[in-house]
């Protein structure tokens, strides 16, 4: 049975180690379990699933990270929303530079 609910997942990395550092819930639900659940989710074919991916300079914005993401989304209808992290004073992480975001996006395309 299809559902009219549109699903958005905060992914942020297709590498279990990086994702666990960012999102401790990944210990309980690693990428392999998440992908299995996403493949079974009855998403409307027109919309698919949205994967939210916060881009952090030097953490998850390399071409290797993009390659891992391509491998992760293989077989599912998904839209990837690339979001530069919102930097604020005191936050050690910085948003990826536009050139990195563009190269990442180009690889996904």
Structure notes:
- The protein has 109 residues and is α/β, with parallel strands linked by helices.
- The protein is 36% helix and 17% strand.
- It contains four helices and three strands; from the N terminus they run E-H-H-E-H-E-H.
- It has a three-stranded parallel beta sheet with strand order 1-2-3, with no helix packed on it.
- Helix 3 packs parallel to helix 4.
- The radius of gyration is 14 Å and the shape is globular.
- 23% of the residues are buried.
- The model has no long low-confidence stretch (mean pLDDT 92).
Keywords, separated by commas or semicolons:
single chain, three-stranded parallel sheet, alpha/beta, 109 residues
In brief, what are we looking at here?
Helix content is 36%, strand content 17%.
Give me the number of helical elements. Answer: 4
The total of beta strands comes to 3
Order of helices and strands: EHHEHEH
Largest beta sheet: strand ordering: 1-2-3
Helix % is 25-40%
Query: What's the story with the biggest beta sheet?
Result: 3 strands, parallel
- Report the sheet-strand fraction: 15-25%
Question: Low-confidence runs (pLDDT<50, min 5 residues)?
Answer: none
Describe the secondary-structure layout:
Layout: E1 7-10, H1 16-22, H2 31-40, E2 49-55, H3 63-73, E3 78-84, H4 98-108
Parallel strand pairs: 1-2, 2-3
Helix pairs in contact: 3-4
